[in-house]
Design brief:
Elements: H1 4-20, E1 26-30, E2 38-44, E3 55-61, E4 72-75, H2 118-130, H3 140-148, H4 150-167
Antiparallel strand pairs: 1-2, 2-3, 3-4
Helix pairs in contact: 3-4
Keywords: ATP-binding, Nucleotide-binding, Transferase, Ubl conjugation pathway
Enzyme class: transferase
Active site: 91 (glycyl thioester intermediate)
Length: 168
């Protein structure tokens, strides 16, 4: 069982690695130097997607038993996307608790695993921005628009991108 001190050491190491070797597409750091369990993340809208040019801020909160349980990620910037709840919480398979899906939508192999790092999680979110999954959406309205009214969807995303640029 991972303890809070083991989680702290792992998070410290991942933070140090990201500082030494930044990854294209995002930046991450602590919200407050005294708390390793809450990170501030800025995701740059991926090129050649509707989100290109945007700067989307999020808070990544880690449980005390990380990496046995996944962190939660909540955008603080407005993001119109089928896999982002209206409160900004990100919904992707790798952030779901480990084991079998009680609803039967996901394989255990698609869900949280302790091998994931901050980097792999954020890269999954960037990938999610590039290709929404409208099969089991967090935001039903956005998913419906993504499927049935792509022009209206694009307009809303463009507005989010513009707003995110004004906030930087």
């Amino acid at each position: 069982m991972a303890s809070a001190s083991q989680a702290s050491l792992l998070l410290q190491k991942q933070l140090k690695d990201l500082c030494k070797r930044p990854v294209d597409g995002f930046s991450a750091g602590l919200v407050d130097e005294s708390n390793l369990f809450e990170w501030s993340v800025t995701i740059i809208g991926p090129p050649d997607t509707l989100y290109e040019g945007g700067f989307f801020n999020a808070i990544m909160s880690f449980p005390q038993n990380y990496p046995n349980s996944p962190p939660t990620i909540r955008f603080t910037s407005e993001v119109w996307h089928p896999n982002v709840y209206s409160d900004g919480k990100v919904c992707i398979s790798i952030l779901h608790p480990p084991g079998d899906d009680p609803n039967g939508y996901e394989l255990a192999s698609e869900r949280w695993s302790p091998v994931h790092t901050v980097e792999s999680i954020i890269l999954s979110i960037i990938s999610m921005l590039s290709s929404p999954n409208d099969e089991s959406p967090a935001n039903v309205e956005a998913a419906k628009e993504w499927r049935d009214n792509r022009d209206e969807f694009k307009k809303k995303v463009s507005r989010c991108v513009r707003r995110s640029q004004e906030m930087t």
